Amino acid sequence: SVSVGISKGIGAIMTVSESVSKGEFDVKAKIFSKDEIGILASSFNDMIEDLKKNINERVRMQEYLSIERLKLADAQKLAHIGSWEWDISGNSVALSDELYRIYGMEPQENVSPEKINENAYAAWMFKLKPVDMSEAAGLLDATAYKDIADDDKH
Q1: For residue 2, how many other CB atoms are within 10 A of its CB?
Q2: Rg value, the chain, Cα
């Protein structure tokens, strides 16, 4: 009967959807017919394949980025240079491990500017040419006290 066919098709899709919700992507909904329920099951199977491809690509990219971060950290350590990001709106600063070492601090992650002791700021200022110190301090002050869009990079 028609209602039995619909129930079987919907039941197959529901069973597969529970498996997918648990992270199982090697499943497919059984297609019982070529009607709308069969088309729905086929589309659902296509969606699962697309999800699996996207997740696999994301995992590959995360692995690649992890390797690249290690390479960057090694290069910074060898060259004794560091990098930093300042999220002004979130009031947090992220320094590379090497920049922490340059400032004589233990590597940490995403600390607020208040937690970076004044020695770090003083050490940074000390490394600037005297002619650049006042301009750098003025730029930092101006940046810190202006409304700057979240996507601005400094």
Answers
A1: 8
A2: 27
Distance CA 31, CA 82 (A): 57
Among 6, 15, 1, 3, smallest CA distance to 33 is for 6
126/109 Cα distance (integer angstroms): 24
Residue 29 per-residue DSSP state: P
Report d(CA 103, CA 97) in Å as an integer: 10
The pLDDT, as a whole number, for residue 150 is 44
Q: Which residues contact 104 (CB under 8 A, 6 or more apart)?
A: 119, 123
Q: Average per-residue pLDDT in the chain?
A: 82
Quick one: DSSP state of residue 90?
T
85: enclosing H helix or E strand: strand 84-87
Helix (H) or strand (E) segment spanning residue 56 = helix 36-79
17-21, 32-36, 109-113, 134-138: which has the minimum mean pLDDT? 109-113
Residue-wise pLDDT tens digits, 108-119: 755 555 555 555
